């Protein structure tokens, strides 16, 4: 063994109690490894294979982590949605509302919606709510954005860029798609009577979806029960 400085057991990866067959197998394996690594082309091919396998394993781990994070995010979103839905109720815009919508001064349950209420409805949509309702003063005009969603309501008033005939409602989101259908009604603020119920289907208008609803009465409130598709 003169001149041999390494430990043969360590080199072959066996213990000092290894049987002859185990030692032979270890030697054959080390010989194959030597033949692969000493050949530049084979070595590079092997390194690429190992790198690809590691990359695949890494991708699988990343996908699993992303799924877990998305699961947690969805859970948090659903909890927040349930909380906000419970806070607002139907009269605050969560879900559809078909009740008596006369003005509060006449015994109704809510005012027409103002900026704060409309912002809350946009938050509902951002959290995944599919059914909401909106109540506007007939001559109001709104342009709002919240949590990646936008809304615009245009009255018929020509002095406010209206066409003198129709109400317009736009809804959009940052993904560029917010297709919806709506049941629109005009409401008598004194007794809650509704008239001119129309089922509307949104159409694409640049980056948002829009419905057009013809004014056919002098009632001062307009209600939309909306379903996001």
UniProtKB/TrEMBL annotation:
InterPro entries: J_dom_sf
Domain of life: Eukaryota
Keywords tagged on the record: Coiled coil
Entry keyword annotation includes Coiled coil: yes
Coiled coil stretches, renumbered: 48-87
Protein name (Swiss-Prot/TrEMBL): J domain-containing protein
Organism: Oikopleura dioica
């Amino acid at each position: 063994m003169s001149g041999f400085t390494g430990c043969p057991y360590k080199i072959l990866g066996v213990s000092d109690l290894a049987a002859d067959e185990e030692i032979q197998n270890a030697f054959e394996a080390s010989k194959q490894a030597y033949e692969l690594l000493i050949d530049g082309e084979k070595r590079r091919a092997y390194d690429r294979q190992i790198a690809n396998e590691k990359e695949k394993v890494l991708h699988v781990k990343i996908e699993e982590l992303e799924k877990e994070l998305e699961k947690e995010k969805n859970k948090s979103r659903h909890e927040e949605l349930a909380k906000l839905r419970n806070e607002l109720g139907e009269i605050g815009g969560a879900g559809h509302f078909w009740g008596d919508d006369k003005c509060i001064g006449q015994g109704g349950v809510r005012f027409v919606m103002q900026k704060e209420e409309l912002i809350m409805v946009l938050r509902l949509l951002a959290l995944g709510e599919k059914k909401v309702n909106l109540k506007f003063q007939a001559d109001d005009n709104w342009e709002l954005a919240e949590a990646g969603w936008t809304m615009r309501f245009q009255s018929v008033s020509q002095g406010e860029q209206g066409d003198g005939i129709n109400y317009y409602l736009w809804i959009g989101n940052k993904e560029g798609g917010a297709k919806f259908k709506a049941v629109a009604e005009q409401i008598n603020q004194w007794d809650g009577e509704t008239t001119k119920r129309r089922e509307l289907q949104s159409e694409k208008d640049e980056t948002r979806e829009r419905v057009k609803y013809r004014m056919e009465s002098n009632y001062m409130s307009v209600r939309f029960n909306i379903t996001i598709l």
